[in-house]
Amino acid sequence: MPALAIDTATEICGLALGGPGGVIDESALEAGRSHVEMLLPWTLDLLLRNGLDRTDITAVVAGTGPGTFTGLRVGIATARGLAQALEVPLAGFSTLEALALGIASGPVDEPVDPDPSGAMDLLPVIDAKRGQIFAQLFRRREHGVEAVSEILCLNPGDLSKRLAALTGRRAMAAGNGALAHYEQFESDPRVEIINRDDSRHRVRAVHHLRAAGDGVFDPVALTKVLPVYVREPDADKTVLMRKKEPWLK
Amino acid sequence: MILAIETSCDDTCAAIMKSDALLSSVVSSQTDFHARYGGIVPEVASRRHLELINPVIDAALKQADARLNQVSRVAVTTSPGLIGALLVGVATAKAIAWACGAEMTAVNHLEGHIAANYLAPDPMEPPFICLIASGGHTSIVFVPGRGSFEVVGQTLDDAAGEALDKGARLLGLAYPGGAELDDLARDGDPGYHQFPVALSRPDNLDFSFSGIKTSLFYYLRAAGKEEIQKHRADIAASYQSAVVSSLIDKTLAAAGLLGCRQICLSGGVSANSELRRRLADACAGRNIGLRIPPPELCTDNAAMIASAARFLPAMPVDDFLRMGAIASGGFAKGGKHARRWKPVT
Ligand SMILES: [Zn+2]
């Protein structure tokens, strides 16, 4: 009786199956901008290769971002639709927290805690596009991680100053936002960025399962599971229209 | 039982249909939400759709006294529309159909507007010409049979409803404004001022509404405050009349060129009183049959999507699992329906 976890906040389509007995299987494939096309086929693949069927899903967990708005909406709409139709519990968990759990637990093929003394903070970073990043500072706790800052949305160049105000420790950074600004992160004395090809830059849905109590959690109303946008919607299109037709105030 | 979902623009819609009976149709309009921006902001619409979609589906099921496990087919609008808005409906529809083991039918939004006519009472049987005019699209389509259509004319810039809304705004009416413009025009003289109607050649079935709105702007700027105050209704009537004339002329021309004796109206602009009155008169005078479905079926809704799905095939499972959404619907870029009909001169 597995829970299905989905994360579509980045270009990776992260999927995982697991329950109280632990993780059954996972996949993290490059979906680019095609989450809507690939999400169900890849979910079906994951179920089939474990001898499972859609009706075996006993709970659904969705990554709520932050990340790309469209990707998040596709993942969350799918998770909500599955929970509604299968009549199973649903919950949403932070994608930044999933990344932080990944940083703390080490790379997939060699899951050794990279910082057993816990001297460093954890800094998951997601690409916010338009030259900006979403980042949040986490600290290790006995059972997982705990956020010690709000979600930041800023230019990578401003990160060092913000970190100095938030923590005296160095922070271990990973995520597609850190990759997108690798040199910037590498030259920042407050940050230790994980190697480019390390699997911890990818969002793994297994960490949502962990955050969700291995699939045994208090369900949330469908409508409460929503993307964490961080940014307000900008009225780009309307602004554009006004430029074209300046008299339409 | 069909569950239909429509989220192509700013209304979140779901409907339930069992064989040929429409059991429920729920529309959650976002108009008030967008009023503060003075227009539809795509990102705002997408966010709102995601908030509303599951409760709207629930409401449609409840009204129909049905459960999701009774649904044998899911129908969803996949194009054309705002891409982010479409995707919320498509992702939801796919998840529900897959989870329920139901079939899937992808419906073109225009096909939906046409199929609004096939819902009771007294549908018009093809062949007919359908004028679909709303705030988002303006198309003349030829419908040779149920489940098929061909676009023979469409707007090259603004939609008719958009032109009416923008005219209303220039006259100081609140967003969206089309209905208020209609009210204001009732007391006005449509012959007060001659606004230009673009592409008025009878062998051209396309529309252009951007010029008329510009011309209203310059007209208002040149006119004195006093004249505007005194003749607001006349100006509104003249402007609306020009937009409506274009719609009627092209629709009648399409019927004539295609030798079609029936015309059907759909889209939000079909609520416009002048369009209804003048088109009815024109059709009566030419012995052409006219059908205007009830207003709640003409504006965007999911009942029309369910109606269309009845005449369309279910997709093979592999295709539906990989299904996406297309903003332009393939109309402008040479898709299935882009083959343009050329009138014989
Ligand atoms: Zn429409």
Note down, in words, how this protein is organized.
The complex is a heterodimer of chains A (249) and B (345). Chain A is globular. In chain A, a hairpin with a 4-residue loop joins β1 and β2. Chain A contains 8 helices and 12 strands. Chain A is α/β, with parallel strands linked by helices and 249 residues long. Chain A has helices spanning 35-48, 69-86, 95-105, 159-166, 176-180, 182-186, 206-211, 236-244; strands at residues 3-7, 12-19, 22-30, 59-63, 90-93, 121-129, 132-135, 138-141, 144-147, 152-154, 171-174, 191-193. Chain B has 2 domains: 2-114 and 298-322, 2-Layer Sandwich (Nucleotidyltransferase, domain 5); 125-293, 2-Layer Sandwich (Nucleotidyltransferase, domain 5). Chain B is of the alpha/beta class. Chain B has helices at residues 31-35, 42-64, 83-100, 109-115, 160-170, 178-185, 210-222, 225-258, 273-286, 295-298, 303-309, 317-321; strands at residues 2-6, 11-18, 21-29, 73-79, 103-108, 128-133, 138-145, 148-154, 262-266, 289-291. The termini of chain B are far apart. Helix content of chain B is 43%, strand content 19%. Chain B has 12 helices and 10 strands. Chain B has a 5-stranded mixed sheet, with helices on both faces. Chain B has a 5-stranded mixed sheet with strand order 8-7-6-9-10, with helices on both faces. The interface between A and B is large, with 40 and 43 residues. The complex binds zinc ion. Residues 109, 113, 134, 136, 267, 300 of chain B line the site of zinc ion.
List the helices and strands and how they pair.
The complex is a heterodimer of chains A (249) and B (345).
Chain A: E1 3-7, E2 12-19, E3 22-30, H1 35-48, E4 59-63, H2 69-86, E5 90-93, H3 95-105, E6 121-129, E7 132-135, E8 138-141, E9 144-147, E10 152-154, H4 159-166, E11 171-174, H5 176-180, H6 182-186, E12 191-193, H7 206-211, H8 236-244
Parallel strand pairs in A: 1-4, 4-5, 6-11, 11-12
Antiparallel strand pairs in A: 1-2, 2-3, 6-7, 7-10, 8-9
Chain B: E1 2-6, E2 11-18, E3 21-29, H1 31-35, H2 42-64, E4 73-79, H3 83-100, E5 103-108, H4 109-115, E6 128-133, E7 138-145, E8 148-154, H5 160-170, H6 178-185, H7 210-222, H8 225-258, E9 262-266, H9 273-286, E10 289-291, H10 295-298, H11 303-309, H12 317-321
Parallel strand pairs in B: 1-4, 4-5, 6-9, 9-10
Antiparallel strand pairs in B: 1-2, 2-3, 6-7, 7-8
Helix pairs in contact in B: 2-3, 4-11, 5-6, 5-7, 5-8, 6-8, 8-9
The structure holds zinc ion (ZN).
